[in-house]
């Protein structure tokens, strides 16, 4: 992961040394072949040691012949410079890898520490190891208290119980506690506290996680300080032998190797064969000896592996016994789906189509919804005949006078019963007599028929209103089913395919990767604006950062560079913005588009010659340029 950063960081050192290889040299020279073999982006420590050994043998051969060639001397200088830069790159990469490993482990312990559930799960995962350590401690104590016992297997059960009981009585409770929880803890509990507080194991496990996290962060800061000191060496104008001496001083300050009296080749050989390999091989065992690494994969998985077989058997048994229930449920679901589609989608949509084809209709059309037009006309004709009959019998209308009869019919059709009502009013003056003669009853029945006709006309108006809104009611009836179908099909489409929102969330590595990049940017800014310590220059000054601040910034930049190399596109048209619809065009198409522009900003932050204030301006530019696009 650090190779891209190291290659970018150390390339300027080689670009400034081209004058050492500009002279034409014989191609058949051994040094030329050696120099050509070193023309690689990255050299391992073993390759550097082999090249230094070959160069040393060549020097010994020349010294024996007492021959000094200017061209060979230039080649030797070029080889030493390449080996020095390669050692510098290896030292940077080793420090970065070790720092990132410690940081990842510290983050794992922090994730466990912040949740009681995670702490309980961690305690369960490590319980067999703790019990094994406790058992080993008890056995060792029994052997120490009873040296005459060769093996516990030679004792009988009763003797073993008595010996164990007697030996355990001499063990202090703190021994058990330090065995089960080996890390230094702030809670020094006695046996009474252990019995009284049932949550004490969780608290001790949480403190263990906190101790490991703080210890790893401290070691990470030490590596970051070394990394910062190495990075600051790049900005100094110095020769190869001076850079080698500085490397030895930074990587091994307590070394007894006298670098001032050694040649550059000896320094390269010492660094590549002794210092760097020892630092690399001692890193992981040191963390393991201090119990700072997370538990092994098997330790983390054993509870799940223990539960998988019974859960699998139970699931198979449950599936076998509930097969009829599941089949009935699936059949019911199928029938419900078919009924829903047929009764709530297909039929209502057919009704909508029929309504559109038939039109609004009306009272004179295909028929009403509440009353039929024929019934309304029959009631109206009956009212007209009753009015004409009453007018002829009571009012003395001449049946042959068609003009007067038609006028009465027209008045009745429009609701004007003035003449009929006058007869009714006169009959009300002598209701008994009128009732006996039948005129009052005929008037009342005519009023009833008139009320029936009025009701029919009212219902006809309502019918016309319903007919005019028939299409609206049809769509209202099918709308809930269409809404349910829309949401169900949308959920299925989102589950099976990616929509625009999903594509926007998964752009540039997804929300998780962009969140990690945001955290690194925040740490860079926090490191730059943090109050200076130990004589570091005040905020806003152009002086260089301290080694610790430089190292922490470089760690974040390493992850950001790996993120950009992996997830940012090379095209100058960098996808869509927050809305997921418009393309973002950067003004650096000649540099490779979005990725190159982002890496260019990172290179500015990596430059050790820039001070705090200048790097803060670069950070502000990155927030302004990339915050919206990357969802920061």
UniProtKB/TrEMBL annotation:
Membrane-topology annotation of the record: Multi-pass membrane protein
Pfam families, A to Z: NCA2 (PF08637)
Lineage: Eukaryota, Fungi, Dikarya, Basidiomycota, Agaricomycotina
Keywords: Membrane, Mitochondrion, Transmembrane, Transmembrane helix
Top-level taxon of origin: Eukaryota
Location in the cell: Mitochondrion membrane
Protein name per UniProt: ATP synthase regulation protein NCA2-domain-containing protein
GO cellular component: mitochondrial outer membrane
Transmembrane segments: 471-492
Organism: Ephemerocybe angulata
Listed PANTHER family: NUCLEAR CONTROL OF ATPASE PROTEIN 2
